[in-house]
Design a protein that fits this description.
alpha+beta; ribosomal protein; flat; Small ribosomal subunit protein uS10 domain-containing protein; Ribosomal_uS10_dom; 30% strand; Alpha-Beta Plaits; Ribosomal_mL48; ribonucleoprotein; 42% helix; 188 residues
């Protein structure tokens, strides 16, 4: 009887396992299947950019002649749209007024006085592809009009703060409020 039982045990040991019959895989044994890839859809991989990207750029153009500066700004905006560059913001800063005096030779007498106005326009670009950035720069430099200055820098908080003009009345009221509060604090 024991012999019959041992032969039965040997037959059951040679039979394939249930997991093999059901076509299932043990995840712990698999090296190609990762747990993070298991529940994520395939299209997420296609949403990643092909090239490295420059996150924030601030392009600043300055000039003395307003119509030329406006025309150049319009041109750069069209080029950026054509190259699929995301223009997050485009804004103008208040003009800066400057007085230049020309003196006579070897004297302190004023020969001529000039009043100059410097106009400024800014672009804020986001997520610029690295291969497109030098192409945009070459186009911008090639089309740069005479008397217009082009500068490019990383967009910072200072760039954002410069665009807001302070309200003089509000600043005066805040100063008056501080004087009143300091006067009350001295009395206590």
């Amino acid at each position: 009887m024991l012999r019959k039982f041992t032969s039965l045990l040997q037959r059951t040991a040679k039979q394939p396992s249930i997991s093999y019959l059901c076509n299932t895989r043990n995840i712990s044994d698999s090296k190609t299947l990762f747990v993070s890839d298991l529940y994520e859809p395939d299209y997420l991989e296609s949403l990643k950019p092909k090239f490295p990207q420059i996150e924030n750029l601030n392009i600043q153009i300055k000039g003395y002649d307003y119509p030329i500066l406006e025309s150049y700004q319009r041109y750069l905006h069209k080029v950026a749209e054509y190259l699929d560059i995301d223009v997050a913001d485009c804004y103008a800063l208040p003009p800066q007024h400057m007085t230049v005096q020309r003196l006579r030779p070897n004297s302190a007498a004023i020969d001529a006085e000039y009043r100059l106005t410097i106009y400024e326009r800014n672009f804020h670009f986001e997520d610029v592809d690295a291969p497109i950035y030098p192409l945009f720069l070459r186009i911008a430099q090639a089309a740069l009009p005479e008397g217009v200055e082009l500068s490019i820098q990383e967009h910072t908080e200072e760039c954002e703060e410069r665009r807001y003009v302070p309200d003089r009345d509000l600043l005066e009221l805040k100063a008056e409020l501080e004087r009143i509060q300091s006067g009350i604090a001295k009395k206590k």
